[in-house]
């Protein structure tokens, strides 16, 4: 046992003071959407992160510190997936988007930036179309929605990434379970978003890894070409899980893109305050 003045006790006290975001849940009938909130508070712009197939909040660990400096970050764990086994049946792309949209209404999120990876990008696209008044910006990171191949090919190619991240991919996939992985793979391949793209009016960053084998960069270019206010970025040396493969480059591009929105919103608020003060 350490004495009160020992270095060990001081270290434990320091660790105990670290704030860990609380796991929260939104219930809609039998469905449970889990999320964690961190970052800035008191009216800061919301940033919503949506993971991909076989994903969880752990896929964003290298990106959270940079994003938390820009706003209030909500890390969503989709029904049927996540970092804790919850035995829920995965939803279709449309139903998952509807649930996220419902959750945003529940929290009254305004001017939110959605960041979706892979399947999460496909869902984010649908949410942006459902909630144009709540979604201000969109980041599509290697988003599915235009992919056409057999579901088993998706399953075979899914465990790609840095060697030290593959165990996370495999553990999250095992936690979700084979039925959910197959069900979601089949549905995302059938859910073509081509007809949805002209509806997306929000400024959109389409960002891809140059070595993405699962979703080749040509799909990203096609996605970007279909969205009126989009910007295309290709990250050198990154694969499908680009925010893990090249976190510094990913964070730089995303924060620069979102930062424009934050600066614009701050200028608008300041102008409104000045106008009310002079009235």
Morphology call: globular
Q: Would you tell me the overall average pLDDT?
A: 84
First and last CA, distance: 66 Å
How many strands? Answer: 8
Number of helices: 10
Q: What is the helix fraction of residues, given as a range?
A: 40-55%
Sheet having the most strands? 8 strands, mixed
Low-pLDDT stretches are 1-18, 265-273
Taking strands numbered 1, 2, ... along the chain, how are they ordered across the largest sheet? 1-2-4-3-5-6-7-8
Structural class: alpha/beta
Proportion of β residues? Answer: 15-25%
Estimated radius of gyration: 20 Å
Helix and strand run: HEEEHEHEHEHHHEHEHH
What does this structure look like?
The protein has 279 residues and is of the alpha/beta class. Helix 5 crosses helix 7. The relative contact order is 0.13. The N terminus is likely disordered.
Q: What key attributes describe this structure?
A:
single chain; 279 residues; alpha/beta; 8-stranded mixed sheet; 10 helices; 8 strands; globular
Q: Helix and strand layout, with pairings?
A:
Layout: H1 7-16, E1 23-28, E2 31-39, E3 46-50, H2 64-68, E4 72-77, H3 93-107, E5 112-117, H4 119-130, E6 135-141, H5 151-157, H6 166-176, H7 178-190, E7 204-209, H8 217-225, E8 230-235, H9 242-245, H10 247-278
Parallel strand pairs: 3-4, 3-5, 5-6, 6-7, 7-8
Antiparallel strand pairs: 1-2, 2-4
Helix pairs in contact: 3-4, 5-7
């Amino acid at each position: 046992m350490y004495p009160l003045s020992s270095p060990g006790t001081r270290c434990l006290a320091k660790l105990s003071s670290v704030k860990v975001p609380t796991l929260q849940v939104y219930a809609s009938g039998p469905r449970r959407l889990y999320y964690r909130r961190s970052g800035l508070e008191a009216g800061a712009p919301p940033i919503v992160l949506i993971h991909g197939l076989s994903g969880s909040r752990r896929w964003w660990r290298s990106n959270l510190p940079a994003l938390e400096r820009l706003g209030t970050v909500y890390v969503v764990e989709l029904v049927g997936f996540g970092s804790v086994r919850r035995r829920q049946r995965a939803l279709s792309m449309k139903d998952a988007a509807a649930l996220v949209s419902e959750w945003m209404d529940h929290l009254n999120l305004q001017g939110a930036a959605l960041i979706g990876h892979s399947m999460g990008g496909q869902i984010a696209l649908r949410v942006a179309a459902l909630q144009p008044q709540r979604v201000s910006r969109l980041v599509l990171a290697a988003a599915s929605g235009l992919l056409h191949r057999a579901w088993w090919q998706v399953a075979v190619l899914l465990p790609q990434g840095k060697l030290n991240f593959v165990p996370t991919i495999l553990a999250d996939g095992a936690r979700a379970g084979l039925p959910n992985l197959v069900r979601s793979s089949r549905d995302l391949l059938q859910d073509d978003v081509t007809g949805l793209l002209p509806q997306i009016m929000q400024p959109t960053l389409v960002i891809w890894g140059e070595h993405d084998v699962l979703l080749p960069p040509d799909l990203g270019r096609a996605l970007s070409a279909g969205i009126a206010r989009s910007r295309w970025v290709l990250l050198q040396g990154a694969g499908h899980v680009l925010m893990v493969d090249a976190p510094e480059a990913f964070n730089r591009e995303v924060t620069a893109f979102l930062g424009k929105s934050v600066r614009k919103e701050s200028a608008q608020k300041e102008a409104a305050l000045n106008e009310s003060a002079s009235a």
